[in-house]
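Researcher: Please translate sequence to structure tokens.
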Amino acid sequence: MSFIENMKKIAKQNCKTIVLPESQDIRVQEAARKIMDEGFAKVILIGEKSNLNPEITLDDIEIINPTESDKYDIFVKEFYELRKEKGVDMEKAKEMMKDNIYFGTMMVKMGYADGLVAGSICSTADTLRPALQILKTAPNTKIVSSFFIMNVPHCLYGEEGTFLFSDCGLNMNPNAEELSEIAISSCKSWEQLIGKEPKVAMLSYSTLGSAPLTDMTSKVIDATKMVKDMCPELKIEGELQLDAAIIPSVAAQKAPKSEVAGKANILIFPDLNSGNIGYKLVQRLASAEAYGPITQGIKRPVNDLSRGCSMDDIVGVVAITAVQANQE
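Model: Translation complete:
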């Protein structure tokens, strides 16, 4: 069973409601139809019915136009209370609640939905800004980050070819403290979605002091120590080169005493350059399935799509979002 099919199976056990605020996108309409047909989640479309393709049957799907909704005035007042100290007056609140993503995010905040997926049309910033303003970060979490689940065919490494890569989509150059938070959040995400023990490799161009200490390596070393201090139960090692992290024979030479080296299933990249390059190299050269970027660290699940996503990509991210909502 593929990763996404397993996500759908888990989601079916406790069907959640996911908001899709970009209803004007035909890919979103097609995805909504497929999700409802497969029955692993309920979806709510936000937007005007006049923008829907009449050739796609959506009669059984709730479609909400923000300004025509009986929830509009309630959401305006709630958003005003949330943001008045940030300079938002009532008129500004009314205007912002006309925005599909802001309205959809408020549905999640107020308990009318369990999660939101957007980004097929809007930018990452436009997708995540409402979530950070309305939902805020999860308890005991200081930074929002992202990850990819990578499924590498015919691969003996990781968790039978499955890895979590982070952060590959949001934080450009995290400092040591931020990097440690990303690692801890990634462990929680791995346990939520995969259900296996996390084994974390903090990646670098050096393995346990094999290269001279620099600002780049010391950041990774410091972050690893912070995680060990905060969460001593986690299996984590750093700094590790990629081959020492996932290949047992290399680990036996470079880090023979490590309980993570050669067995890592979570790879934490030191910056966005390396993370983005790394996941795309694996995706393209190894024909791997890459699911993400999935967001972690927000109080309720909100996930971003690539603007080049397919209908099936949207279906997959909704399935992951539904499982995240289930775990919460």
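Researcher: Any highlights?
Model: The mean pLDDT is 94.
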